[in-house]
From TrEMBL:
This protein's GO CC annotations: cytoplasm
InterPro entries: ADH-like_C, ADH_N_2, ER, MDR_fam, PTGR1
SMART domains (UniProt xref): PKS_ER (SM00829)
GO terms assigned for molecular function: 15-oxoprostaglandin 13-reductase [NAD(P)+] activity; 2-alkenal reductase [NAD(P)H] activity
UniProt keyword terms in alphabetical order: Acetylation, Cytoplasm, Fatty acid metabolism, Lipid metabolism, NADP, Oxidoreductase, Phosphoprotein
Gene: PTGR1
Subcellular localization, as worded in the UniProt entry: Cytoplasm
Biological process per Gene Ontology, one example term: prostaglandin metabolic process
One Pfam assignment: ADH_N_2
Domain named Enoyl reductase (ER): residues: 18-327
Name of this protein: 15-oxoprostaglandin 13-reductase
Main location: cytoplasm
Listed EC numbers: 1.3.1.48
Amino acid sequence: MVVSKAWTLRQHFQGFPKASDFHLREETLPQPKNGQVLLEAVFLSVDPYMRPYSQTMMKEGDVMIGSQVAKVIQSYNPSFPVGCHVVSDCGWRSHWVCDGAELTPVLPDWPQDIPLSLALGAIGMPGLTALYGLEEVCEIKKGETLLVNAAAGAVGSVVGQIAKIKGCRVVGCAGTDTKVSYLKELGFDQVFNYKTATSLEESLREAAPHGYDCYFENVGGKFSSVVMPQMREYGRIAVCGSISMYNDTTPQTGPYVHTHMIFKQLRMEGFLCARWKHKHQQSLRRLMAWMTEGKLRCNEHITIGFNNMPAAFMGMLQGDNTGKAVVKV
């Protein structure tokens, strides 16, 4: 028998999450049966989507949702031998028993010099989100100008680099000067600190006087309202997130986008990367190829210790991370 630790949602968040909203419990897991495996968490992910999903898809007392890279430590399933690593959506748990139906093996030829934690980042869901948002939603083309906000985050930093690989001009914004410097190192053409900018409108216009063909939206709220007038005709907007609104206790209202959408003939589309699940393996190999070729670089913000899951989650929501936020067990 294995005793597993699990972080649960003690109570639904009211505004920004608090440590008291979480509860750490222990649970004794059953012995794996035929066809099942026992997993041990190695790296766990904390992501912005967990905040709104917790409100709509979880009950108080549920284990916090999320992905992890786990090691198979006991197996009665020949598809998952002992010692292999998988990506699991079993949430904030240290161990778990499952039948393998929802497990995704890490790429079989994963290079030894690439951290396995990147299966939760650039070579995982955030990387796929960046790729599909650009290719499937924005249908981005060489020579176009792209704007991405929250650009130093797990998704935004990959978005900018893929756009550069595709021959685009990339404008990014972030909330600290350190993050601005990091994005310049990654090859972004123009970057600014939106928190210290005198005028967001003027900063956006100076970065791209002729406007934006594509906008990869991670922030929402007032930021989005300022961008709309600066979109070019037939512009495309991939709505990935709205982190500026996740902790609101009173819903934000207007300005509204309709006039700009009509007269500029814009296309705005929300998306989840699972829509293109049939392409995941091929897409992960493309991302890995860019990584090994040195075209894609990734920073990780690693927190040590399973007991620090809530702190890592709250830190990510307030922008402590540059790159992907991960917890190492």
